[in-house]
Structure formats: structure tokens, C-alpha cells
């Protein structure tokens, strides 16, 4: 079914449990044999056990950088196709990802079809631009909400991580449907 590479196994390395599970199901529906890992350590162990033909790797994991997983995959099989999937995109990291073997660097949220299109594209072909790209403001709001949820829905802690005033964060979350906002004084 896959025309780029014979090995249709896929490793998904993502520390967000819900996203990882949804992505694995979506990739299985598209013909991949998906395995998952929740950390850099689990991703490295999975590659040692059985090198996948494809990988979707989150950039920032709880125990380190997904770039370490890309580097390991490239070392084990230079023909394997890996992409970095992240909500924290920046140009220097995208360049670093490409230098160590990632075929692309995709900002969250990305659809399963967008991911598959990038993974299946020939190495010398530039993937098509997204049909409905996320606006900078939407990316900012998603980043804020992600940090808020990673901070255990604690407004004070998330505000410190985001380097913004607690009340400003509360207003942003309220205005953008981040319901259930509660404040904790630490």
C-alpha cells in the first residue's frame, strides 16, 4: 500500500496520551502498523527493538528532545522517514531537525492526512502547503492553552511559565473558551 518504503511500521512518540492514541488510530486506518512511545527513552528503546519505516515525533517530551529520537532513527536506518510534530515551532529547531534526518517539521495541530502526505512525499519533493493554515493568533492561543493544561490547569503556574500576568492569562483563556479556569496562589 505504501509506495515510498516497504516497511509500513510507524513509531509515534508523543507525551500527550490522548493525541498519541488518536494519531495511532488514524495512522492504522491509513495502512500503517503504528506503535507508540510516551518519552524519548521509550522511543529510543522502540527503535532498538524494531526500526520503523516511519516516525512521527513530538519535539518537546517530558524527558528531553524528540530530536534525539530522530537522530537514533537516522543512525539505524537512513531511509526511514521521520517528521517532527510540535506546538513550539521555530526556525532554528526546524533546521536542526532537517540536518539530522527529519523529512519535515509540522506545527500542531496537523491532520492525519497532512502527516501522511508529508511522510509519503518523495524526499526531493516539497510537500504541498496546507489548505487552511493556522493563523498566528490561533497558534498563540493553542500554545497558551497547551501550557495551561500542562501546568495542571493552574493559572498562576501557567502564567509564570508563559511570563505573563495571571489576570492576563485568565482573560485570554476566558475569551477563547478555556472554561474551567481556576486560580491557585502558590
Automatic annotation (TrEMBL):
InterPro entries: Bact_response_regulator, CheY-like_superfamily, Homeodomain-like_sf, Sig_transdc_resp-reg_receiver. The modification 4-aspartylphosphate is found at residue 58. The keyword Phosphoprotein applies. Residues 9-123 form the Response regulatory domain. Keywords: Phosphoprotein. This is Response regulator transcription factor. It comes from Pseudohalocynthiibacter aestuariivivens.
Amino acid at each position: 500500500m505504501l509506495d515510498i518504503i516497504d516497511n509500513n511500521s510507524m513509531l509515534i512518540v508523543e507525551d500527550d496520551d490522548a493525541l498519541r492514541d488518536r494519531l495511532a488510530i488514524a495512522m492504522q486506518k491509513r495502512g500503517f502498523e503504528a506503535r507508540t512511545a510516551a518519552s524519548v527513552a521509550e522511543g529510543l528503546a522502540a527503535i532498538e527493538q524494531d526500526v520503523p519505516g516511519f516516525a512521527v515525533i513530538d519535539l518537546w517530551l517530558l524527558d528531553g528532545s524528540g530530536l534525539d529520537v530522530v537522530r537514533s532513527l537516522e543512525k539505524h536506518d537512513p531511509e526511514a522517514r521521520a517528521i517532527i510534530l510540535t506546538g513550539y515551532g521555530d526556525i532554528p529547531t526546524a533546521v536542526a531537525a532537517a540536518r539530522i534526518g527529519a523529512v519535515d517539521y509540522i506545527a500542531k495541530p496537523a491532520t492525519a492526512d497532512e502527516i501522511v502526505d508529508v511522510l509519503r512525499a518523495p524526499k526531493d519533493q516539497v510537500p504541498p502547503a496546507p489548505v487552511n493554515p493556522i493563523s498566528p493568533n490561533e497558534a498563540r492561543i493553542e500554545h497558551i492553552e497547551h501550557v495551561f493544561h500542562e501546568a495542571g490547569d493552574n493559572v498562576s503556574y501557567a502564567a509564570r511559565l508563559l511570563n505573563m500576568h495571571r489576570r492576563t492569562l485568565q482573560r485570554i483563556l476566558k475569551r477563547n473558551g478555556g472554561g474551567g479556569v481556576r486560580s491557585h496562589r502558590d
